[in-house]
Amino acid sequence: MTDGAPPGPTVDLRTTVGSVALPNPVMTASGTAGHGAELAAFFDLASLGAVVVKSLSAEAWPGNPALRVHETVAGMINSVGLQGPGVEAWLEHDLPALARTGARVVVSIWGRSVAEYEAAARLLADAPECVVAVEVNLSCPNTEAARDLFAHHPSSTHDAMAATAACGRPRWAKLSPNVADLAPIAAAARDAGAEAVTLVNTVLGMAIDPETGRYRLGSGPRGGGLSGPAIHPVAVRAVHDVHAALPDLPIVGVGGVATGEDAAELILAGATAVQVGTATFADPRAPALVLDGLARWAARTGRHRIADAVGAVHRPTPLEQP
Question: Known catalytic residue: 140?
Answer without folding.
Answer: yes
